[in-house]
Known about the structure:
Elements: H1 8-37, H2 44-48, E1 56-62, E2 67-72, E3 75-80, E4 90-96, E5 100-103, E6 109-110, E7 116-117, E8 119-126, E9 134-138, E10 142-145, E11 153-155, H3 158-173
Antiparallel strand pairs: 1-2, 1-8, 2-3, 4-5, 4-9, 6-7, 9-10, 10-11
Amino acid sequence: MQKRGFTLLELLLVVVIIGVVYGLVISSMKKLTDKESALGFETLPSFLETFYQQNSVAFICTDNCRNCKLYVDGEALKKMPAFMKDERRLNFWTFDVNLGMQELRFTPLFDEDGREFDVCFKYEIFEDGSSTEMVIETKKKSYDYRGSLHKVDTFVSLQALEESRQEELREVLK
């Protein structure tokens, strides 16, 4: 009986397959890194929707918005770029149909040792597909987060955003 080894063609085929698989893995990892580097107020909801979760996925920033982390089902998944850390003015609001804009305060975060961290920003998508609704006011723009069924609307000012919401409310009440 004669022992037979691999032919050169078979070895080349294996090397090519490994190269293709490696290229696909690297390119998918690069796409995720590109999404993280392009992260901003307008792209945050669509970025978080790409993560599989059973209960929730959240982007939470502490330490005056200098440290941000991605949480999936309550567990810290990874440290994220704090894209809002250079904003000089950052205010958060909720829109109440009766009272208009009301300031939004975030609940503090506690680590496993019971230490408290002030949360300066928190956006969360829940298991039913709903998400945090809020208005974010920066020095240059205001962003309207109205839930996962709406895209993030951008306005030149908080006043313009509030006027748009009031006009929409008047249209609904007609």
